[in-house]
Design a protein that fits this description.
Number of strands: 12
Number of helices: 22
Strand content: 5-15%
Largest sheet: 8 strands, mixed
Shape: globular
CATH class of the largest domain: Alpha Beta
Distance between the termini: 66 Å
Structural class: alpha/beta
Number of domains: 2
Bound molecules: S-adenosylmethionine
Radius of gyration: 23 Å
Helix content: 40-55%
Length: 441
């Protein structure tokens, strides 16, 4: 396909997402199925246009004078492919599959129009109703912080030390220019996509099929590490879902002790069985939501709560979720977070830890939930994350951890007090919130 056809396809898919309220991944998949002639390069180039247009929908709309799909796709093409108006027009000239684009003057003005005159929420590419929350949380840098959630993300992987060393995985992935991601002993990073390129499909690599590594954002790896999981412990992963954190915790325990993986939703839990088998995790017991967990009460060294949340920290990867989030959804998530913390707390043994994690940056889902929880009965005490970080990195035996690239985040952890907020701008990860609380002995 030529550029004109790719632009038209991206516009068609965006229209489908908007009119039928469809998740972006599903809309792209369906388009691929009904347009078999499109090759894999076409599909990824179209995917980049759709994702970029969704990520920067408001600022592109402002700079183009319209947020209609053809305007924001033209903006995504110009910015993503480094084309000026002339190059874009020339590339689609005479192409019968090309769409109607905004007028030449608008296209010509686009690169210079930086939206500096626009309200903060437009420059930040977020819905208006969330602007106050970002401002309260990030202060002067709130627009920058929010805008960084619209960048293309890297592909992050975790070396599964139950099966392969960090070095071995790096070597296996060297054709893809994989590098240590720097914050954790296990993290590996493949840089964000450039232009109309694509990330390698690492899931068909022999190393992946043999369980040497998992796809996992480094923020998620760091959250698991900061739980303080150590060999021999008894851990309840109370919101295990498909098991991303369970697998990381299992490796941190070096296949000793016991992890109880539980989730309130059987369907979400289902993929965990295959993943555990591939990763060689032998210390995990999966609990169906119908199982009775009574025997675990007051017996766990760590209860890990990877709470259901709005996912604002993952907007780089799921930009459609940004525009779908409503105040009503947020209220629902908050109620679930309060419930899940209350339910999970009873399994922590005296002297044990309750770890609360979300992949959201919103204070409503993070610090305010901790305050609400601590205000209730239970007597939990939040721990200083700087100390936990130092211990986790010391036991992680990582040559990279503590090195220069890590210094900035190290400082962040030391100054975090009792809660760590990771963001694409601060830590180069997805947005994650971590708070570790102890039940007094
Ligand atoms: C953020 S996801 C978990 C992701 C998973 N830990 C991972 O790393 O792949 C949150 C999970 O919480 C589960 N959940 C929501 N409310 C729950 C409850 N009351 N009890 C247990 N699990 C719950 C959801 O089904 C969902 O799978």
């Amino acid at each position: 396909m030529r550029l004109g056809g790719r632009l038209s396809a991206a516009i068609e898919i965006l229209t489908d997402i908007e009119t039928r309220h469809r998740p972006v991944a599903q809309a792209l998949k369906d388009w691929g199925i009904s347009h078999r002639f499109a090759g894999s390069k076409d599909r990824s180039a179209i995917g980049n246009l759709v994702y970029d247009a969704l990520r920067r929908k408001r600022s592109y709309g402002h700079r183009m004078g319209s947020d209609a799909p053809n305007a924001i796709v033209a903006a995504a093409a110009m910015e993503g492919l480094s084309l000026d108006a002339e190059a874009l027009t020339k590339a689609i000239d005479g192409d019968k599959f090309a769409p109607d684009l905004p007028d030449p003057e608008t296209l010509r003005a686009f690169p210079e129009h930086r939206a500096l005159d626009a309200p903060g929420a437009v420059r930040a590419d977020i819905p208006d109703w969330l602007a106050d929350r970002f401002e309260v949380l990030f202060g002067e840098s709130w627009v920058e912080e929010a805008a960084a959630l619209s960048d293309r993300p890297p592909l992050d992987l975790r070396a599964n030390t139950l099966k392969a060393s960090h070095d071995k995985v790096l070597e296996a992935l060297s054709p893809f220019h994989a590098e240590p991601s720097g914050l954790t002993p296990t993290g590996i990073r493949i840089a964000p996509i450039e232009g109309d390129g694509r990330h390698p499909n690492v899931q068909v690599e022999a190393g992946f099929l043999k369980g040497w590594f998992e796809i996992q954002d480094e923020g998620s790896q760091l959250a698991a590490l900061l739980s303080g999981a150590e060999p021999g412990m008894q851990i309840l992963d109370y919101c295990a879902g498909a098991g991303g954190k369970t697998l990381a915790l299992s490796a941190a325990l070096e296949n000793t002790g016991q992890i109880h993986a539980y989730d309130g939703d059987r369907q979400r839990l289902a993929p965990i069985y295959d993943r555990l088998a591939r990763a060689g995790c032998r210390n995990v017991q999966v609990h169906d939501p119908r199982d009775e967990l009574a025997e675990l009460e007051a017996a766990m060294d760590i209860v890990f709560v990877d709470a259901p949340c709005s996912g604002t920290g993952t907007w780089r990867r799921r930009p459609d979720a940004k525009w779908r989030l409503s105040e009503a959804n947020l209220e629902k998530r908050i109620a679930e977070q309060d419930a899940v913390l209350d339910q999970a707390a009873r399994y922590v043994k005296p002297g044990g830890r309750l770890v609360y994690v979300t992949c959201s940056v919103l204070p409503d889902e993070n610090a305010e939930r901790i305050e609400a929880f601590l205000g209730g009965a239970g007597g939990f005490v939040p721990l200083d994350l700087g100390g936990i970080w130092e211990r986790a990195m010391a036991t992680g035996a990582s040559p990279e951890a503590g090195a220069e690239g890590n210094a900035e985040v190290h400082r962040l952890a030391l100054s975090a007090g009792t809660a760590l907020m990771m963001t694409p701008l601060k830590t180069g990860t997805d947005g994650f919130f971590v708070c570790v609380m102890e039940r007094p002995a």
